[in-house]
Amino acid sequence: MGGQVDQDLVARWVGLAGAAAEPVGADLVRRYREPHRRYHTVDHLATMLGVIDELAADAADPDAVRYAAFFHDAVYAVDRPDNEERSAELAEERLESLGAATELVREVGRLVRLTAGHDPVPGDRNGEVLCDADLVILAADAPGYGAYTAAVRAEYQHVPDELFRAGRAAVLQGLARQPHLFRTATARARFESAARANLSAELAALTA
User: Fold this and answer.
1) Is the entire prediction scored with pTM above 0.90?
2) Angle, nearest 10°, between helix axes 185-206 and 161-176?
3) Which of 17, 88, 139, 150 is the most exposed place for a label (fewest CB within 10 A)?
4) 10, 146, 80, 105 alpha-carbon torsion, rounded to 10°
5) C-alpha separations of 6 from 14, 134, 193 in Å
6) Environment class of residue 102 by beta-carbon count within 10 Å: exposed (0-12), middle (13-18) or buried (19+)?
7) Per residue in 67-88, pLDDT tens?
């Protein structure tokens, strides 16, 4: 296993799933280390888990949300539209192989699929926490947000600039139209204003 982040993530997985499940966790971390990734990496996963810890009281089942975080980008190919579905199927397969309860398997699969649109229904406490954690990068400071947008562009370096700008703008416009970017009151108070400002600035640059 690679550096300290990788080791910490495997340790977190073992704390969640048990020592016998360590090979599954190690495989997941290796996936987040795939060379084509620039943003959807171990650092993104570690950040998400930290935010889930902070928002744990807002979730109905924080451990289900943590499992979903580990799996949510486990399959990530920039040329395919079904990464979330394939990641959810992987989650269900791996958790079933580990003997997880049927209810947990179903919930983790549902949560992973939810990250395709980041639009949980009101009252979906687990979904709200997972989506808030996944979107927290939108509220980064200027250097952090710049690094994020550069990393996303690098993942799509094979896409011509004009097409990338149009596609990226469409994604951001879809987010911006939502009444709230963040669904938990905790995350909304901490992150909504900064995230809105970042989205507006990036959209202005993309559509100039």
Assistant:
1) yes
2) 150
3) 150
4) 40
5) 12, 19, 32
6) exposed
7) 999 999 999 998 889 999 999 9
119: number of Cβ within 10 Å? 13
* pLDDT tens-digit readout, 111-160: 999 999 899 999 999 999 999 999 999 999 999 999 999 999 999 999 99
In angstroms, the CA 151 to CA 76 distance is 14
- How many Å apart are CA 116 and CA 166, to the nearest integer? 19
Tokens of 110: 């549902």
Q: How many CA atoms lie within 13 A of 132 on its CB side?
A: 28
Helix pair angle (42-54, 62-72), 10° resolution: 170
> For residues 61 and 52, is the Cβ–Cβ distance under 8 A?
no
- The CA distances from residue 21 to 86, 93, 94, 148, in Å, are 20, 13, 9, 32
Sign of CA dihedral 136, 83, 122, 108: negative
Question: What is the distance between the alpha carbons of residues 51 and 132, in angstroms, rounded to a whole number?
Answer: 8
CA 183 distance to own-chain centroid:
15
Q: Which two tokens stand for residue 175?
A: 């987010």
3 state SS of 41: coil
